[in-house]
Amino acid sequence: MTLSSRKPQTIVIKRVKKAGHGAHHGGAWKIAYADFVTAMMAFFLLMWLLGSTAQGDLQGIASYFQSPLKVALGGGTGSGDSSSVVKGGGTELTRSTGNIRKGEIDAPKKSVNLQALRNEVMDKEAARLRQASRLIEAAVQSNPKLGALKNQLRMDITQDGLRIQVVDDQGRPMFDAGSAHVKEYMREFLRSMGALLDQTEAKIVLSGHTDAMPYSGGERGYSNWELSADRANASRRELLAGGLHEDRVLRVLGMSSSSLFDQADPNNPMNRRISILVLSRIGEERWTRSGETPISEAEALEKLLLKQGAIPTPAPANPER
Fold first, then answer.
1. What's the pLDDT score for residue 53?
2. How far apart (Å, rounded) are the C-alpha atoms in residues 90 and 98?
3. CATH code that applies to domain 114-308
């Protein structure tokens, strides 16, 4: 075989292709990053749930994981008292009732019918004052000495209580003229009244009144103001001598002629009188808790109802920071 008859050999060159620096290294990092984001979302969701769940639910969940079988079988307060089938599940976040944390919803307000309470108090006080009025009328009718002043006795129920007034009669004055010396029959009447008023267990306001006839020396010296105050205090002493306790007398006032019984005739003897105000509960609040002048009836009623516990005590105002 000659050289020219040989077949030429094919030369195959194999080159290994190496990856450059900018090529991809694979997709494993994407999986790791997705796991991290999922874990962070779960963490923040857990934090939100813990912050939004009521304390009773948290205790129920804790009890469940500490002893799941016991809580699941026993239930009760340890499981959160939820409405869920699974004990310890707690209240759903979408519910507005159940184990809700204090302060999340407003406490139910107790509705109070002030008008009904006022009527109830007024009815009770009116009945008590009518009972006191009947007691005094019976005592006057049964005692001849007291009956002598029957025509001079005036009784009526006012805003503050039972008002008992003893007025002067033309022929039967209660005091010596221009003096605070008590007449004998008036002394017996006041002492009997002291024993009766003590039975009512009510406080009284005592006031003296005169007519409008001035003293010869005018108002700069001893005047009707001093005379009315002296007569009121003289009557107070007689009431105490009859058995009225000292703490029952709330105030003693000298009114002079500032509050006339007969407005048409300022010099009428009936304007000279002693007024005994047997205070109701509301009247006592008005006069006891006031300064120089009584407080309003509405304010007195509110204080009385607060004292009796009929209405809730108002919450104190938040101090300014």
1. 73
2. 9
3. 3.30.1330.60
